[in-house]
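Q: I have two molecules that I believe assemble together. Could you output structure tokens for the complex as a whole instead of separate predictions?
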Amino acid sequence: MSLSRRNFVIATSVAAGGSMVLSACSSGGGGNSGNGSHAGTTKYTGHVTVGTKEDSTGPAPEIPGARKGGNIIGIGPDDFSHLDPQRIYFAWNSTVANLYVRALTGYKIAMDGSMKLVGDLATDTGTMADGGKTWTFTLKDGLKWEDGSELTVEDVRHGIERGFASFTTEGAQYVQSALVGSSDFRSKYKGPFSNKHLDSIVTDKAKKTITLKLKVARPDLNFTLAMHSYGAVPVSHDTKDKYDKDPVSAGPYKIAQHSVDKSLKLVRNPHWDPATDAIRNAYPDSFTFQFGTESLPATDRLIAESGDDQYSVMAYSGVPAERLQKVLGDPQLKQRTINGLLSGLYYYAINCKRITDPKVRQALNHAWPLEQIRRIYGGQAAGDYATSIISPDILGYAHQDVYGKLQKPQGDPEKAKALLKEAGKLGQKIVYTYPKGSNDAYTKTAVVITNALKAAGFDPVVKPVDSTSYYDQVQQINNSFDVMWFGWSPDWPTGYTVMQPLFDGATIANGSNNVSQLNVSWVNDAIKKNAVIADPAKAGAAWEDLDKKIMTELAPIIPETFQRRFYLHGSKVGGALFDPLFSAFVMYKLYVKA
Amino acid sequence: MFRFLVRRTIGAAVILLIISAITFFLFYVAPRDPARVACGKVCTPQTLALVKHNLGIDDPLPVQYWHWLEGVFMGRDYASYGHCNAPCLGYSFINREPVTGIILDRFPTTISLALGSAVVFFVFGVGTGMIAAVKQGKALDKIASSASLIGSSLQIYIVGIVAMFYLSDEWHLLPRPNDNSGFTDNAGAWFGGFILPWFVLAIIFTANYTRMTRSQLVETLSEDYVRTARAKGLSGRTVFFRFAWRGAMGPIVTILGLDLGSLLGGAVITEQTFGLHGIGAVSVKAVKDMDLPMLLGVTMVAAGAIVVFNIVVDAVYALIDPRVRLA
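A: Yes, here they are, computed for all two components at once.
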């Protein structure tokens, strides 16, 4: 789900095109004092809570003024890379998967952008036992596949067990690892195709229950199971590798026609019963996705709105920086935009193995020129200053700013210098790296970063790495970089999905996402402890505390921005809402205006 | 003629074989590992090895190349897909489909674009060139010559975007370029979708044909045999069309054949500019995705189109100009 590490690669190279709004552009609100207020919205969207059984009961609340019928066109640069739920990881694939894939749980998004985790196929968000090691879900009545056959607990189990198959390497691996207790889970189980099932999943067809018995406690498993990687697949219609071309729908729409990289058409699934679905509205009769239009020409098309483009939306690639001013400067165009923060955080990882003194790392945080950097990205419209590890879309998020960056977003060289002096490290050499060739903006930010570091008493050396091998190089344990541009987007909105991969010392290895190589026992212990807190609200608060403590005492990263993305839609499109999880339109809420 | 065709066909096959081998081996010099694309967020060595096996890229290079050649001539079986009929140009692991199918799916757009624009630029180019040659030195000639100079110095990505902006978006005179309808399912919509790309592509190409036709005609019109024909009392029209025009057409047909060949291999920039989904768009995407089978497929189609049209051009040349003999 959501932006993943690899999405950052993609986003900064080609697939997402201008969607990361990172090409150079002045103003757009840049150059002001930059207090982190939100351009275009008054509050953070994406606030998440866990819903009740009532919340999980369909149908989804009607959208006032919405009407049935018509066709919505989604314009995007590239085709969806996968349609097989078990092979779906990237956010942009999930925007379409929402229309035909259903998993045990899912997110019910209100029109104000707030989210509730609810039961999707299941009647509620599951019953946890054994401290998070055992999870039981009951299926709703009336669930059907697009051919009218019943969707059973076996189909749900099949979806989870398919994640072990040799052809589903692209999907998420969390549940598989937890079920067999090993990250090398394919050596323990080969998938359901020889009629062998996992002992750790127990189904009861009569009672419609499915129980997952994990080897490790996962109190937020109900969040994990909302990932499309764990969507149900009908046992009797599974075509294995070919399922990716023609998946069977359990949602309101089914795939009618697909021409690779050109178009994808979805039409109503007559066997979907809205009474079983608390999440999805389904107003249009069909959706047509048209591929091959990059974000800039797509924006121009939507500005011009000729012909059917009035019924179009930018499917998953947002308004690029060079058009932001035009779009936001024209009230009529601005009315046709939606925007929201991308889930996750852009930051700079400090290599704790090389920069061992926390004081130096704290000095780096003080010195970092957030304002100048954001101005290069396009100013205030490009996003909000990040002042914590945990992003606003995470359950339990509370604003904090231990380095006072909102007061001095341009950097505080005096404070940085004082800390360096205290540490006896004035003139400390800092090797900074960023991916080169993917985005002009990073070359420009390197200049302002260098200037700020010099002003704060550092001796900066910039060593860019070619974007095609950037991640491979910075994820080497023995790399020669001190500060590395990086980004992380969680797979579901709990603190565990941020703190564990980024700061658990046990994960340090070549290719690990703990790029800071932080390995501190109290952090490792806290991660272990927080991971098994059963109450989501308490867990959220515990992760927040850990965030603050890590940033205050260890400063292993320099948070940069929570980036914002803008999308345009045609004037005949209603129900436009920014999906806080997948950072695009919530497709199933759109409708065609009369 | 027959011997000529056999000889040229064998030559073409050798050229295509060499091109395929070069493309295949060059791809592996690239620093990126295509297996990483399918290896998930936490890419363990075990998963990476599994992906490599799934993609068939764990064999030594020459073995992989040999399998590819086998597929082209005899078809091939893929573990994940099943049988791929000959000519199987490979299995695109990004699109999860045989390459041949994707290319066939896209070919209508490429053919529509290439042939449609060829009609426009050939008619306009040769027509203007003829007028310029006949009115040599007069105002019409000067206008035609300067227009062609301007035309040939323009770029599709500028003319295309400007034309699209004004003609489609601002003034709504022409539909936005699209390839949503095929010729057989809705000829009107097909025509509307392609008309702008045809003319924009033609603006760039027409210039060459105007200049070429003009200079060829001017040269032929001063040839001895043309003068002889005139001296024999033949009418100006007969002299022009039966003698001068036919003589001048040889080189122009040659260029047309080569242009068509390269357009059928995919008009990359034109397709990108107008958001069309032909072979050109496929090749751009294949490069972006490191999709070797796809890349190899489109390279072979493009190279094949050029090689075939070369042969056609040589044969047609002989038909037009009796002085040329195929030996």
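A: One point stands out. The longest helix of chain A spans residues 536-554.
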